[in-house]
Design a protein that fits this description.
Length: 289
């Protein structure tokens, strides 16, 4: 009876893993099949390096996604640069330095922030952050790349904090005790022993945060300005995700415009895969003696 239960559990776990892998492969296959026709017709070079996106033009539509691609890359990089250090330091404080009652309150607030819908984050950004930037920086509008980066940085915080804290909690206490016994201070132990030992979990948190930032659509749609310009920090821009969200409802079924939007989705998918691969390689190098 015990062996039968073991086999059943193994089969169930295998089926769950297989379902997850199959879902990912099906999404990838669908995006490739739906996006490749446009890439063949437009051309890889014109599509990826073209500087003009004007898909609605009646006679001569143009499908260059370079401004959208660079905006997504810059926006994701900016959000990671701002959000990841803040999230990791918050996790370090919660796991090592905070009094238990204060840590419980902050964890609850972090979980609340994780549950806030992206449309609410975008709404707050549009009604509070954008007017603030417009007045403080004397801008004509205030919406743009800077506003989008700030909103994305806040949105990726919960996942970075929670995953980093879990990774730090998994570090064996003996590592820290050995460091303290050798004369290191608590702060030195946290930064030179605990944090490097939790590097694998922190890298996973960075990957998740970057994936959240690069895949966000609704929030950036509300604060970025949605003009397909080459990216500038204070100018109106459009992200890849926003381009798909804005135009998919207006693209005729089977048209080149719709196929080009599927090609953008394929680029987004490959971008997330690339981010995860790079972080995996960086984590592997960091783990070598």
């Amino acid at each position: 009876m015990g062996r039968g239960s073991d086999r059943a559990a193994r089969c169930l776990f295998f089926l769950c893993a297989l379902t997850t892998a199959a879902a990912l492969l099906l999404i990838a296959a669908y995006l490739i099949l739906a996006g490749l026709p446009a890439l063949r017709e437009i051309g890889w070079k014109d599509f990826l390096l073209g500087k003009i996106w004007d898909s609605a033009h009646a006679e001569h539509p143009q499908f260059g996604i370079l401004p959208l691609l660079l905006t997504s890359l810059y926006g994701t990089a900016g959000a990671v640069v701002l959000g990841v250090p803040l999230g990791v330091l918050t996790a370090l404080f919660l796991s090592k330095a905070a009094p238990p009652k204060l840590a419980a309150v902050i964890r609850y607030l972090v979980r609340l922030l994780a549950g806030v819908p992206s449309v609410v984050c975008g709404l707050v950004g549009m009604t509070v952050l954008v007017p603030f930037l417009r007045e403080r920086l004397d801008l004509p509008a205030g919406d743009g790349l800077l506003a989008a980066v700030l909103v994305l940085a806040v949105m990726l915080l919960p996942s970075v904090v929670e995953m980093s804290e879990d990774a730090l909690a998994a570090v064996p206490r003996t590592y820290e005790e050995a460091s303290l016994a050798l004369g290191a201070t608590e702060a030195e132990t946290w930064f030179r022993v605990s944090l490097p030992a939790a590097g694998s979990g922190v890298a996973a948190a960075v990957a998740l945060g970057a994936g959240r930032a690069v895949g966000e659509a609704v929030a950036v749609l509300m604060v970025a300005g949605n003009a397909a310009n080459m990216p500038s920090l204070l100018g109106s821009v459009r992200f890849l995700t926003a381009g798909v969200a804005l135009e998919m409802g207006y693209a005729a079924a089977g048209s080149l415009r719709q196929q080009a939007l599927f090609s953008i989705a394929l680029v987004l998918f490959l971008l997330v895969v690339l981010i995860n691969i790079l972080l995996y390689l960086a984590r592997g190098r960091g783990a070598r003696p």
